[in-house]
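Problem: given the chain below (376 residues), write out its structure.
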Amino acid sequence: MDLYEHQARELFAAHGISVPRAEVTGSPEQAREIARRLGGCVVVKAQVKTGGRGKAGGVEFAADPARAELTARRILGMDIKGHTAATVMLAEPVDIESEFYVSYVLDRAAGGFLAIASAEGGMEIEEIAARRPEAVARIHIDPAEGVTSAKAARIADAAGLPPQTVDVLVRLWQVLVREDALLVEVNPLVRTTRGAIVALDGKVTLDDNARYRQTRWGAEGDGRDDPLEAAAAAKGLNYVKLDGTVGVIGNGAGLVMSTLDVVAGCGARPANFLDIGGGASAQVMADGLTVVLSDPDVRSVFVNIFGGITACDAVAEGIVRALDTVRVAKPLVVRLDGNNAARGRAVLDERAHPLVQQVTTMDGAARRAAELATTV
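Solution.
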């Protein structure tokens, strides 16, 4: 579960990390009052769970309360990479001397965590990492050892961070451990002209498997700001919204990931990740198809099923059920292989829906879905 920036800052402050004073609102009129309380000059920031807000115009300085209201009015409702800004955060500005980047992220391949840090933080960190990888330090962390002051000093030294950041690095690790996080990121972490180390932005991803322990976010629903993700979660579906036009449904995370790559290799962009699971029923298939077809960005859907525990005829029955209950106006390309594949194909042939096409190979089906996404 991703947190909004203001929620991440709340966690940072609770663990002793300095953040500027800030308040959140969904009202332009309240934005004026908040700016007045914060001293007049504020930074107005769209609260969406995606990066690139600054480049999209979702972060802007306001010199006075009247300007803060106008700026909030412009940002509220803004679409940033498919995310709608329903609220804005108004924060006190700070005088910045230097900007840094620090994060801890789960490294599944190594069976531990990875500290990533750079003395060159800010909006261009991705470009810096790609163009000059030597400017970004990557230090592996043993979960049993954690980040002690000595380990934090090693991270700071490797990244060229000032010694004052050592305490913040230790506290950020405490955020990750105590809050059951998979990712904790600060970009930028800044040194002010007065020498203080302050977190100006924050990104935190919590482990969904630990949500029963992190009940403080229960009042905010499932923590998703995308309505399709919320609808899928309500149905118990493993769905992630992406920014493409080809809807993707598969059974098994590995197969779905491979399907995303194949679709991208065919020149199209996947619109979502949806894994219906290894033992999905016809109802689960129908629910998944309903969610994917509800995405206005989807122009075609690729259903890629390899029958094992999930029998292909059950998947086909689910597709038919969805076709009978949902208005389908987008083409579906279906590839069935494995357990009861022949029977599943026969079920779809018998239904003979004009928008359903069957292709027997994964590559061929991906190509056809990509073609349909560009012509529909």
